[in-house]
UniProtKB/TrEMBL annotation:
<keyword id="KW-0804">Transcription</keyword>
<dbReference type="InterPro" id="IPR018151">
    <property type="entry name" value="TF_GreA/GreB_CS"/>
</dbReference>
<feature type="domain" description="Transcription elongation factor GreA/GreB C-terminal">
    <location>
        <begin position="85"/>
        <end position="157"/>
    </location>
</feature>
<feature type="coiled-coil region">
    <location>
        <begin position="50"/>
        <end position="77"/>
    </location>
</feature>
<comment type="function">
    <text>Necessary for efficient RNA polymerase transcription elongation past template-encoded arresting sites. The arresting sites in DNA have the property of trapping a certain fraction of elongating RNA polymerases that pass through, resulting in locked ternary complexes. Cleavage of the nascent transcript by cleavage factors such as GreA or GreB allows the resumption of elongation from the new 3'terminus. GreA releases sequences of 2 to 3 nucleotides.</text>
</comment>
<dbReference type="Pfam" id="PF01272">
    <property type="entry name" value="GreA_GreB"/>
</dbReference>
<dbReference type="InterPro" id="IPR022691">
    <property type="entry name" value="Tscrpt_elong_fac_GreA/B_N"/>
</dbReference>
<feature type="domain" description="Transcription elongation factor GreA/GreB N-terminal">
    <location>
        <begin position="7"/>
        <end position="76"/>
    </location>
</feature>
<dbReference type="InterPro" id="IPR036805">
    <property type="entry name" value="Tscrpt_elong_fac_GreA/B_N_sf"/>
</dbReference>
<dbReference type="InterPro" id="IPR036953">
    <property type="entry name" value="GreA/GreB_C_sf"/>
</dbReference>
<dbReference type="InterPro" id="IPR023459">
    <property type="entry name" value="Tscrpt_elong_fac_GreA/B_fam"/>
</dbReference>
<dbReference type="InterPro" id="IPR001437">
    <property type="entry name" value="Tscrpt_elong_fac_GreA/B_C"/>
</dbReference>
<dbReference type="Pfam" id="PF03449">
    <property type="entry name" value="GreA_GreB_N"/>
</dbReference>
<keyword id="KW-0238">DNA-binding</keyword>
<keyword id="KW-0175">Coiled coil</keyword>
<dbReference type="GO" id="GO:0006354">
    <property type="term" value="P:DNA-templated transcription elongation"/>
</dbReference>
<dbReference type="InterPro" id="IPR028624">
    <property type="entry name" value="Tscrpt_elong_fac_GreA/B"/>
</dbReference>
Length: 160
């Protein structure tokens, strides 16, 4: 089975690459120092610092593996080539929530970059799926557990 492509914006790619570099160069060295220090304290069977350092090392290695897997299957959206006539990954949009008559600014990103607190919604989320392909002034309906939400696309622009 072919692995799912991880759609990333250039900013998301850069952020993951920077995190990977930090984990490999800085964090690995820090945790190795902690493990060495804990070993020098003697009996490892009752050494909480050693156990904590080994747990941290395991977490770091797991995150490195996760990032490498994401990057291996990454498909970077070139924002300059995004079609501004319709909503797609890599664009910033303003929508009107028609139920609450409230404007929102959203950024459509791949699932690995999604962060609703920052207004970054995944192209795989119900709202993201409904908005993909919509044009300016078009209204989309989103099936939600709480009922149908309606959004009108007010503007589409490059995510700069």
């Amino acid at each position: 089975m072919e692995e799912k492509k991880n759609i990333l914006t250039y900013a998301g790619l850069k952020k993951l690459e920077d995190e990977l570099h930090d984990l490999k160069v800085v964090k690995r060295k820090e945790v190795a120092g902690k493990i060495k220090e804990a070993r020098e304290q003697g009996d490892l069977s009752e050494n909480a610092e050693y156990d904590a350092a080994k747990d941290e090392q395991r977490d770091i290695e797991a995150r490195i593996e996760e990032i490498e897997k994401i990057l291996k299957n990454a498909e970077v959206v070139v924002e300059d080539e995004v079609d501004m006539d319709k909503v797609s990954v890599g664009c910033k949009i303003r929508v009107l929530d028609m139920e609450y008559n409230e404007e929102m600014e959203l950024q459509i990103v791949g699932s690995t970059e999604a962060n609703s607190l920052q207004g970054k919604i995944s192209n795989e989320s119900p709202v993201g799926k409904a908005l993909i392909g919509a044009r300016k002034n078009e209204t989309v309906n989103v099936e939600m557990p709480a009922g149908v939400m309606r959004y009108q696309v007010l503007s589409i622009e490059r995510n700069i």
